[in-house]
Every structure is written in C-alpha cells, then in structure tokens.
Amino acid sequence: MTQEQSPEISLSIRTGSFMTNYHDWGKGQPVLLIHGSGPGVSAWANWGRVLPKLSLNRRVIAPDMVGFGFTDRPEGITYSMEGWLQQAVDFLDALELQQVDVVGNSFGGALALWLVVRHPERVRRLVLMGAVGVRFDVMRGLDAVWGYTPSIENMRAMLDTFAYSRVLVNEDLAQMRYQASIRPGFQESFSAMFPAPRQRWVDEMARYEDQLPNIQQPTLIIHGREDRVIPVENSLTLFNAIPNAQLHIFGKCGHWTQIEHTDRFVRLVENHLAE
Q1: Which residue in 37, 42, 55, 106 is the catalytic one?
Q2: What band does 166 get if pLDDT is binned at 50, 70 and 90?
C-alpha cells in the first residue's frame, strides 16, 4: 500500500507554522481524540477501531500530533508539552471549535490534562486512558517504548509489552508497525522526543498534578489492570484527585484498552459523553 492509499492519511489543516493531518468522522457534539506515543504511532493506529463506532452519534476528530504520523515535521522543531498543547489549541481554533469533549490515551492523557488545566473553557467532558499526568517511576515497559531502536525483534518485544492478549500480537502486526516506524523521518522525530534520562519527561507531563483537584469537568478514567507501560496506580491517583471522576479498570487488559476491549471501551465512552 502506498502512502497515498494509506488510511492513516486523511485531511490536513494549518496549525501555527505547519499542517496537521487529521481524521474527521460523524456529526454532532465534537470529541477530540489524542493518541499516545510510540514508534510509528499515528492517530489512525491508535483510533482506527474506535472511529467508525464512536462517530455514529457524534463528530470525532483525531489529529496526528506533531512528530507523529503524517503531520508536517518542521525543520529544527523542539518537541515539548508546550508545543503539543499549542498545536491542540491551534487545531481547535482552525476548526472553529470553542468546546469539545476530550479523550486522551497515555501521553495523550497527559496532554488532555494540560489542556483542561490551561484552557478549561475548551473542555466539556474528559476521558483519560492509561494516562500519564501524575508522577511515577518510569517502568521498564515505558523505557523500552521511548528508547525503541528500529528492528523487527524490538517491535515484537514492544507489542508484547503493550498487549495482554497474544491474539492481537502476531507477525503481520509486528511487520506493519515495524514498517511504520522506519518511514522517512519517523524514527528521527520519535527518538528526539524522550531521550534518556526519561524520568524527566514523565515529571514534565505531571507538571500540573497539584492542579488536579481544580478540574471540574466530569472525568472518566480507564486503565488495563495488566498494563506494563503505565502503572494502574496512576489512574487510582487521578481518581482520588479529580472531584468528578469515575474509574473503570479492565481485567485481562494491557495498555491498549481501546484495542483489546474496543466495544466495551466505546460503550463506556458513549455513556460518559452522553450524560
């Protein structure tokens, strides 16, 4: 499949000085999906199973954050939470969306928290999945993800870390994600995001941990009990800190709640956003 045929490439809109690739499905109350981090990651890789289902009753928009997927990679850019936050705000402004529901996955959960703390008027309801955003000691799984160097063996090992179910982790998926990780510019940008020592990036994502009790938006927190990338204790901390929070922990589930339990995940999110 050529890049031109890839489902990962969809619409494009200017956000600041660069163009952002994004998906825009359905009609109704808008919900912004913010993907996680990982080699070869894109909005489609994170949300491809969710988009057709969640967009039946609402408008679902899912951008590639800069440095990921098929959004432009400006020469000389420094990747940072401040930069990703600005891109998210610019993206909403470009689409003329004053307020959205936000679903953030892992790194995207941290970014969702930055958005709701810094721009609370832009967020109606919040969903956090296996989210960074509170301080924790970097787990071996996260260190391996952020420290990935391209090889099919490393990709197989990383997929084993992400998923609880071995049914999902097969050679076809490993080859597909490995090929995605070695597209021109992909590994160069990814390796520049979270260089060692990696604890500092977790701490930066958790910059607003002391602001969590001020979040008034209804918040659904989701985690996989067997997550080996982000500790499930993170979500317990978020649940105890955010006043209007609900918590759902999937058993027999790793870091991929939206992939390993797609239908249940969509029902949970639908119910939360429909209230």
Answers
A1: 106
A2: confident
